[in-house]
Design brief:
about 700 residues; Immunoglobulin-like; 4 domains; six-stranded antiparallel beta sheet; six-stranded mixed beta sheet; globular; DOH_DOMON; signal; repeat
C-alpha cells in the first residue's frame, strides 16, 4: 500500500475528486470472461450440458458441465472427421492423473472444466468436441468448432524501459489476463522499497497497486541476475484493467522502469491453464513470504502463511521420511479437530519424479478413498485441485513445500472457506502414502489431537523456534503371528497397531485398520490343499458407509481392493473365494456380514505396548446387530503356494495365506497366539448364519 500523502492545498474540491479518480479501475473487458465462445453442448444422452469456450489455441473451458456418470467408458473426445467417430482422440480429464490409463469420466453437476488438447493438437486441427463412449461407440453430446475461430493468444510486449538500478529484461509476455512472463530479468536489488507495480495513466505514478513477486510475496524486491520469472496480478485485477507494469519505489515515488499494456489486448482469460516453470522457481532458494509462522504437531510441522488478494499462500516444513506426506487444512468443525468434512491439502515429495506435489482433498468418510467416498483427492471425485504448487525444496533433511489456494470455497460441496477476519480451527497430520501416492491413515500421535486456532489475516504472528526431529526408528514391530492346524476362522476389523503392527510387519502402508483373524492382527494362515476351511466374516454389510464395509475375499494380490480396481486391473488378480459375477459379468462380493471391530478403550497404546497381548488388553470388541457371513473354501490342488486374505473395497487390510500339501511341516502358533477369551462372551458368533459355499476344484474364479 502506498504511503499516506500530505494534505492537498490550493486545489478546488472538483480537482481533488478528479485526481483521486485516477486510481479507480474500470475493466476494458466485461467480466466474467471465459474466452471465445464456441457453443453449447448438444445433448443426446446422459444429461450432457455445458457452454464451451476457446481459452487459447489448445485449451477449452466448459462452463456448467453436467453428465450423469453412468456411461461405462466415457471420455472427452476430439477429432477432425465430419461427425464424432471412433477415429477421434481422447482428451484426459483431469489432465494430471496417477493411474496408467486416463480415468473414465465421472458424474458432474454444473462443474467448470478446463480441457487441454493432447499431443500438440490445436483447435484449428479439430472440428468437434464430444463426450464419447468408447465401448459402445456412442456420442453422448457434442459441440462443433465454428469455421474461422480465432482463439485468444498471449501477447508479446517490449522489454522494461531501462531507467534505474540496472533494471532490464527480455521481451515481456502477457500469457493470460493475470499472468506476466518476464525473461532475463536484471535488477540490482538496491531500491529500499521497490515492488512490481501496475496502474493507470500515461506514466507510472503513486496511485498504483503492488503485484506479488514470483514467490507470491509482497516483500520488497530482491536482486535478480538474469532470471526468468512469472508474476500474477492480485485479487480480481486483470491486464485489461491497467495501462502499465513497472518496478516502482513506493517510499521515494521513483520509477525504475516500465512497459506499457496495449489497449487492443486480446489474451486468454486466467482460468488456471497457464502452467510454466521459471528459472526462479526451479533453481532459486524459496524466500519467506511472510512473518506469520506457527509450529504444530509437537513442533514437528511449521506452517507459514500470507493472504495475497483472494488467495492464501501456505508454506509447510517438516522432516518427512520417504513416501510420507504432511497435510494441513481447515477443520470439519469449529472448536475442535474434525477430519470428517475437513478441507485439507496433502503435500509430499515425489521421490520418483524428484518433485514436490500438492493435492486438494475432501474427507467425506473416515475411510480409505474408494473412488467415490473417503479421504479422497478432489480430482478423483470429479472436482478440481484448487491447491496450486508454488515451489518446494529438500535441504538438510527438511522438506519445504509452498502452495496457494483460494480464500473462498471454490466448490462448496468439497471446500471450506479460509477466514481473514478471525481465527478458525485447523487440522494437520503426517502419514504414509499408498501405491497411488494418495494419503493413507495416520497414527493417533501424528495428527492434531486438540483444537488449534489460526488467524489467517494476522500480520507478524510468528511463534516458530525450530523443527523437532521425527522419530526415525520408532518402537520395534511385534513378531509375526501364525495360525495353523485350524479350520474355522473369525474375520473382524481392528486397529493396525501403529509402528508395531501392520506396516512394519508387511512393509505396506496401512489405512489404520486391518483384519483380525481369530482375534489376532494379520496372522499368517497355513492351509492344506484338499481341505475345507470356514471363515465367519464380520467386516460390515452397510454399503453406504465405506468406513464400515469390508467384504472378505481371497486373492493372489498382496494389495487387495478388488472392487475399487478398474477392469484391466481386476484382470491382473486371481480370486479364489469371496467374489462372484452377475449375469452381466460384473463382480460382487459374497462374504458380507455384520460389522465387528476391536476399538480403543482410550487412545491408541500400540507404541506403549511391548507385546500384542498387552495391546489387545487396551481394546474392546464392538459388534453391530446381525449375523456374520460364512465363507466356506475348499482349497483346490492347483492352488498356488502363496495367497492373501483381503478387503474387497479397500487396499492393504490383510496378509498371507500359505498353501501347503498334506503332511507338510508348518510353524505352530505356540505362544504367538493372543487368546482373548472374552471375545466370545462379548460378541458370540450368531447361531443362525447365511452360508455361502465356494468350492474351487480346478480353476480360480476370475
Amino acid at each position: 500500500m502506498a504511503p499516506k500523502l500530505p494534505p492537498l492545498r490550493g486545489l478546488a474540491p472538483l480537482c481533488v475528486i478528479l485526481l483521486l479518480a485516477v486510481g479507480v479501475v474500470t475493466s476494458r473487458r466485461p467480466e466474467p470472461y471465459y474466452g471465445r465462445l464456441i457453443g453449447h453442448l448438444t445433448q443426446y444422452a446422459h444429461g450432457i450440458r455445458g457452454t464451451v469456450y476457446a481459452v487459447d489455441e489448445s485449451t477449452v473451458f466448459i462452463k456448467g458441465f453436467a453428465y450423469d456418470g453412468t456411461g461405462p467408458d466415457a471420455y472427452f473426445w476430439v477429432g477432425d472427421s465430419p461427425q464424432p467417430s471412433p477415429e477421434g482422440t481422447l482428451v484426459p480429464y483431469p489432465e494430471d492423473y496417477s493411474s496408467r490409463d486416463p480415468p473414465i469420466l465421472s458424474a458432474h453437476s454444473n462443474t467448470d472444466i478446463l480441457l487441454k488438447l493432447p499431443a500438440g493438437k490445436r483447435l484449428r486441427d479439430i472440428k468437434w468436441i464430444s463426450v464419447w463412449c468408447r465401448r459402445f461407440t456412442v456420442n453422448f453430446g457434442d459441440v462443433f468448432i465454428p469455421a474461422g475461430l480465432d482463439p485468444p493468444r498471449p501477447r508479446v510486449l517490449p522489454e522494461f524501459k531501462r531507467l534505474a538500478h540496472g533494471l532490464r529484461s527480455g521481451n515481456i509476455s502477457v500469457l493470460d489476463a493475470k499472468t506476466f512472463y518476464i525473461p532475463n530479468l536484471h535488477y540490482d536489488g538496491a531500491g529500499p522499497d521497490a515492488y512490481f507495480w501496475v496502474g493507470n495513466g500515461s506514466e507510472p505514478n503513486p496511485f498504483g497497486t503492488k503485484v506479488p513477486n514470483e514467490m507470491g510475496s509482497l516483500n520488497p524486491l530482491r536482486g535478480y541476475q538474469g532470471e526468468d520469472i512469472e508474476i500474477q496480478l492480485p485479487a480480481k485485477l486483470t491486464a485489461y484493467d491497467v495501462d502499465w507494469l513497472a518496478v516502482w519505489c513506493v517510499e521515494y515515488r521513483h520509477n525504475f522502469g516500465h512497459v506499457y499494456i496495449p489497449k487492443d489486448l486480446d489474451v486468454p482469460p486466467a482460468l488456471g491453464q497457464t502452467k510454466i516453470t521459471t528459472s526462479s522457481t526451479t533453481s532459486k532458494t524459496p524466500h519467506s513470504a511472510t512473518n506469520n509462522c506457527k509450529e504444530i504437531l509437537d513442533k514437528r510441522l511449521q506452517v507459514r502463511w500470507e493472504i495475497q488478494g483472494d488467495q492464501v499462500q501456505i508454506t509447510l516444513s517438516a522432516r518427512l521420511r520417504k513416501e510420507q506426506y504432511m497435510a494441513f487444512g481447515i477443520s470439519g468443525a469449529e472448536g475442535r479437530p474434525a477430519m470428517l468434512g475437513a478441507d485439507v491439502v496433502v503435500a509430499y515429495w515425489d521421490s520418483r519424479a524428484n518433485q514436490p506435489r500438492v493435492a486438494d482433498y475432501t474427507i467425506t468418510h473416515l475411510a480409505q478413498c474408494d473412488g467415490e467416498r473417503g479421504v479422497c483427492p478432489d480430482q478423483r471425485l470429479g472436482g478440481s485441485n484448487d491447491a496450486v504448487l508454488v515451489t518446494g525444496r529438500q535441504r538438510d533433511g527438511v522438506t519445504t513445500i509452498t502452495y496457494r489456494r483460494p480464500l473462498a470455497a471454490a466448490e462448496p460441496s468439497r471446500d471450506r472457506e479460509v477466514l481473514s477476519s478471525r481465527s478458525q480451527s485447523i487440522i494437520a497430520a503426517f502419514g504414509p502414502l499408498n501405491s497411488r501416492s494418495e494419503a493413507n491413515a495416520h497414527s493417533f500421535m501424528d495428527t492434531t489431537r486438540h483444537d488449534v486456532q489460526l488467524d489467517f489475516g494476522a500480520q507478524s504472528d510468528n511463534a516458530c523456534i525450530g523443527l523437532a526431529e521425527l522419530d526415525e526408528l520408532g518402537p520395534g514391530a511385534w513378531p509375526a503371528r501364525v495360525l495353523s492346524g485350524v479350520t474355522n476362522f473369525t474375520a473382524r476389523i481392528g486397529p493396525a497397531g501403529g509402528r508395531r503392527g501392520y506396516t512394519p510387519i508387511t512393509g505396506h502402508p496401512s489405512w489404520g485398520i486391518a483384519w483380525y483373524i481369530n482375534d489376532q492382527l494379520i496372522p499368517e494362515i497355513y492351509v492344506e490343499r484338499g481341505k475345507t476351511y470356514t471363515f465367519y466374516v464380520e467386516g460390515g454389510d452397510d454399503r453406504t458407509n465405506p468406513a464400515r464395509y469390508h467384504p472378505f475375499y481371497i486373492s493372489d494380490s498382496s494389495e487387495g481392493g478388488f472392487g475399487q480396481k478398474k477392469e484391466e486391473e481386476q484382470r491382473k488378480q486371481r480370486v479364489f473365494a469371496g467374489v462372484a459375477y452377475d449375469n452381466e459379468g460384473y463382480p460382487f462380493p459374497t462374504a458380507v456380514g455384520r460389522y465387528c471391530e476391536w476399538t480403543h478403550k482410550s487412545v491408541d497404546q500400540a507404541n506403549a505396548s511391548p507385546t500384542f497381548e498387552q495391546y489387545v488388553r487396551t481394546l474392546q470388541l464392538e459388534c453391530a446387530p446381525g449375523d456374520p457371513a460364512t465363507l466356506v473354501w475348499t482349497v483346490a490342488h492347483e492352488t498356488p503356494d502363496l495367497l492373501y486374505y483381503q478387503c474387497y473395497t479397500h487396499n492393504n487390510l490383510g496378509w498371507k495365506i500359505h498353501v501347503v500339501d498334506p503332511g507338510t511341516a508348518v510353524p505352530k502358533p505356540g505362544d504367538q497366539k493372543a487368546r482373548i477369551n472374552a471375545a466370545h462372551r462379548i460378541c458370540p458368533v450368531a447361531s443362525t448364519t447365511f452360508v455361502l459355499v465356494i468350492t474351487l476344484l480346478n480353476i480360480a474364479v476370475r
